[in-house]
From TrEMBL:
Source organism per UniProt: Herbiconiux flava
Single GO term (MF): DNA binding
UniProt record similarity statement: Belongs to the DNA glycosylase MPG family.
Listed name of the protein: Putative 3-methyladenine DNA glycosylase
GO biological process: base-excision repair
Length: 200
DNA sequence: TTGTAGATACTCT
DNA sequence: GAGTATCTACAAA
């Protein structure tokens, strides 16, 4: 089992190749994680929601490790994180992309605009949608039903890192290269700088 | 295949 | 009141 009381930067590479499953009345969807990002807090990480301290939104980021932190962004999208570090410390791993390996039909019905199976969970908001995670799942324990999270069967090879995608301000610049992904995976989203950084 | 613009509503200042 | 850890559609090559 993964030790989630370590920091997000240490946990992130361990999650690659691992599988997350969610049971719902409609059925079960399982996703193999191919891309994640680490976020810290409390002044350590300018790209993190917790950079300016604890607020109502990021409250679960300070909670028990191994739980879910969901948040709403851009007026229409939900993103999911795995909370790391002991309670009281802000640290989380954003689930960015994965490959649907179980419940393909259900995932397809949740993502009618997706053209191919590769696109089903190619992006943070898409991953959440394919799994059927809702904003109300914030704080849920990933180790107990309806969720389950298993580490990779064997240590994933070909792990690469890069700058984080879509993060504005200094959090999208070095030394914050805390995006981890499996090399050669078609489900990894293409790297895009934040529009603000691209302009500068 | 690559690049650009628009939509959307919640949170923090 | 302004900014946002994004996705989709459309246009051009």
């Amino acid at each position: 089992m993964i030790d989630f009381s370590a920091t997000a930067v240490e946990v992130a590479p361990l999650l690659l190749g691992g599988v997350i499953a969610h049971d719902s009345p409609e059925g079960r969807v399982t996703v193999r994680l191919t891309e994640v990002e680490a976020y810290l807090g409390d002044g350590l990480d300018p790209g993190s929601h917790a950079f300016r301290g604890r607020t109502r939104r990021n409250d679960s980021m300070y909670g028990e490790p191994g739980r879910l932190y969901t948040y709403f962004t851009y007026g229409m999208h939900v993103c999911a994180n795995v909370v790391c570090s002991p309670a009281g410390e802000a640290s989380a791993v954003l689930l960015r992309a994965g490959e649907v390996i179980e419940g393909l039909e259900l995932a397809r019905s949740r993502r009618p605009t997706s053209r191919s199976d590769v696109d089903l969970a190619r992006g943070p908001a898409l991953l959440v949608k394919a799994l059927g995670i809702a904003l109300s799942d914030d704080g849920a324990d990933l180790g107990t039903p309806p969720f389950s999270l298993a580490p990779a069967e064997q240590r994933a090879s070909g792990i690469a890192t890069s700058l984080r995608t879509g993060v504005s301000g200094d959090g999208g610049r070095p030394p914050f290269a805390w995006r981890f992904f499996l090399e050669g995976e078609p489900t990894v989203s293409p790297y895009k700088r934040h529009p603000k950084l691209a302009a500068g």
